[in-house]
What we know:
The protein is an alpha/beta fold. The protein has helices spanning about 20-30, 50, 55-60, 75-80, 115-125, 150-165, 185-200, 210-215, 245-250, 360-365, 370-375, and strands spanning about 15, 40-45, 70, 90, 110-115, 135-140, 175-180, 205-210, 230, 255-270, 275, 280, 285-290, 310, 315-320, 330-335, 345-350, 355, 385.
Amino acid sequence: MTHSTCLPTSGPWAEIDRAAITHNLNWLKQRLPPSSPGQRTRLWAIVKADAYGHGLVHALAALQDADGLGVTTLDDALRLRSQGWTKPLLLLSAAGVPADALADPALGELHLVIDEVTQLEQLESATRRPGTGTLRAWLRHAGRLSHLGFDALDYAAGFRRLQALKAQGRIAEAGHLHHYAAAEDPESLVQERQEFARLIEGLPGPHCTGNSAALCGPLPEPLHPGGHWLRCGLLLYGASALPGATGAQLGLRPAMSLRARLVALRPIRAGQSVGYGDSYRAARDTWIGTVGMGYSHGLPRGLWERGRVRVGEAERIVPLAGRVAMDCFSVDLGPAPREQVGDLVTLWGQAPGGSALPVETVAEACGTIAAELFTRLTARLPLRAI
Ligand SMILES: *Cc1c(COP(=O)(O)O)cnc(C)c1O
């Protein structure tokens, strides 16, 4: 092995496995309560935040069999339409959306989440003519999250106003939406389900619940006579929403593998330091490998403390050595490494030879969750679909 500081030009990238997203969608569909006449549970595939960092267009290609797609911006909704999506779209909040913009026929069947009285007022005063499309509205219950939506006390009055809009033909449907605050805790999930069931008891209209943690759990959602939609994001991308379990353990396939290359290898002596702030000190003579990816690509700077990556053909697990820098970080390859400059490094996901490094493990090492790691990747990191 030669001591080299040669820098190959190829930068890091995220590989997006569309077949894995489709697999995860099918996994979810199998978990839905079975259909009975007039009682099919439908699934919103949530593709907000650029499909949790996986690329909206890549996710769209993989999610053709979803019943609908959920987004947080009107721009994303229009982008999905321009890419050919014709099934329903769910806009997760009406905040900041001018009611007249919703009359755009290009939006097709749009489901709008209403989380404030001002949004009801906007719909009531919109110049949109009745019957010009299929706008459906969902009233959001604030529940235990308390950040958006109607409190239990105001809910029934808000819902009556939505029903009036439906009676006037201004919207095609009025439904109930709840978002769980702590679905990963089975006891809390049961309580939240009961609270929501009590809230909407006797009210007409479909209901919409769920998130990944609720769908990982053992309890199927009870069917509601008015129809039922479930929403799911994270699981589609192959990550678990339950602490202590990986997506793979649940039967999901990771959709993103984060890759970079070794850009330098050098021997250092015992006691020598590596990285900014003398953050790592070699305990013995060793080789340091430097990887061409840093916090400017979205890696958490704190990954170095407990982080590990897979390197080279052997897909060996090695620890980080020193703080993550803007465009690179180092790993400790030990005294006699076989790896070479240019070798592949997998930071999470599936290594090409088949070994895995679950994103959940990486998230735990940096004190965060998989969804944050996915969505903090920056525009400097290209997405390559396979
Ligand atoms: C993001 C989001 C979801 C999806 O949550 P996951 O835990 O990723 O499945 C569902 N509903 C709402 C309202 C959301 O904002």
